[in-house]
Amino acid sequence: MKRFLVALSALFLIGCGESEQTPVQRVLPWAETKELVVLVQNGPTSLYVNAAGDYAGLEYDLVSQFAQANNLKIRFLVSGNYTEMLERLQRREAHLAVGGVKSDEQGLIYGAAYQQVEPVLVFSSKISEEGALAAIKEGRAGLSTLPQYVMALNQLKVNSPELNWHVLENTDNESLIEQVAQGKLDYALVDSHAAEVAQNYYPNIAISRQMGEKQSLAWAMPDAEVQLQMLVEGFFRKQVADGTLRRLQDRYYGHVNRVDPLDALAYLGRIESTLPRYKNWFQEAEARTGMDWRLIAALSYQESHWNPDAVSPTGVRGMMMLTSETADRMNVDRTNPYQSIIGGAKYIQMLKETLADRAPEPDRTWLALAAYNIGMGHLIDARTLAVRMKKDPNSWADVKSVLPLLRKPEYFRTLKYGYARGGEPVIFVESLQSYYDILARFERPSKTVLPMPSDSIVVQNPNNLQLEINSVLKPQQNAKVAANW
Questions:
Q1: Would you please indicate which residues are annotated as catalytic (active-site) residues?
Q2: How far is CA 176 from CA 40, 50, 182, in A?
Q3: pLDDT digits over 275-302, tens only?
Q4: Among residues 57, 68, 1, which one has the least CA distance to residue 34?
Q5: Which CATH class, in words, describes the domain spanning 261-442?
Q6: What is the pLDDT of residues 125-147, one digit of tens each?
Q7: Domain covering 119-213 assigned CATH 3.40.190.10 in the classification
Q8: What is the layout of strands, in order, in the sheet containing 73-79?
Q9: What is the pLDDT of residue 24?
């Protein structure tokens, strides 16, 4: 069932000079109302409903933290149109527009740049990069793009006068990528982060970075909002200084390149061919532990590729690759696929409970999964080392930065549990995060969970844009398979 957010009930205030067909809802001063109205595009790099049924996205998190730091309430206005966002901001229908590229739009000012993106060419992986670039620069193929990338294309056209393109207003990065993957478009110019995220779900696309220089993302606001601009500048200085921005960026982008296209393609094939045999057991494991069945299934794939007879050189075996000690502790037969799944899920839950009083989600889950791979003792050592290095032991982004140090004598000799191949759990968890993201796109949760209402944050979605993580990129060819499950 599609999940939609709250819709705008009405437009009340009409600005001078606007026609009756284009009513304007001008915002009141935020300093008086203590409410910040923020325009944002939907998508995995900005705002969406994640696999757990919560609002998520880098922009959503940043704006929420900004509001909390300044004792403000937030009202998000979700838009699927970049040009519309800027036009509405210029008409003073909001105080901020986030997730956009810093530009010289008339009547707008910008806060601090906080991220670099670049326009990238997306095309079929059956075509070489050289062939794709030649086709568009010589005018032999059409190129679709979004308004924010026209400047980059105009610069390219100086040296490639045959280059031509079609600007699509009422769409977004994900939709363009999806259409290229489905063969409906030959080429698209999109945001680099969006392309990297989507490449896991569409391994049949390729990316070229030879389309323009990097651009800075910055929050936009009307040029009269000088006080707001100063607050934004101060907020991002603090985010950079205390490492919060780095941790948030790692949460959303730190694992996107971990699974290569061939591995993703093999995984997608097994989702169709193998997963149906075990899906009910993964869902039962969720019922017993409360963990998302798709995370348990992704872990099982990471461990055994859903092979109940898998055995490693070190003696771990079964669907969840349990040691004999762990299997005994969970009171399961690790060679039995059903019992292995239940035992593995119970073990992860036990590890999470060990961290429950310290690490918030989703960091707690990633730390527990690192312990699943390397052992709780070595994870404790890594967290101890993080504290010594003035990093956050409850942040997965910080802990994963010190885990590889456990193989160096100058570090492991000072710790309780000694030497460990600390790079392995980093690769393990990042790969698992990618597998989980992919499965969350293709498989529905066992139950529908709506975002919890909040007194301080309201999300308004007047156009009923689909914001679920698995609503936009769900392949049509999976519909028939899903009906048979």
A1: 303
A2: 18, 21, 10
A3: 999 999 999 999 999 999 999 999 999 9
A4: 68
A5: mainly alpha
A6: 999 999 999 999 999 998 999 98
A7: yes
A8: 108-110, 220-222, 96-97, 35-41, 73-79, 457-460
A9: 65
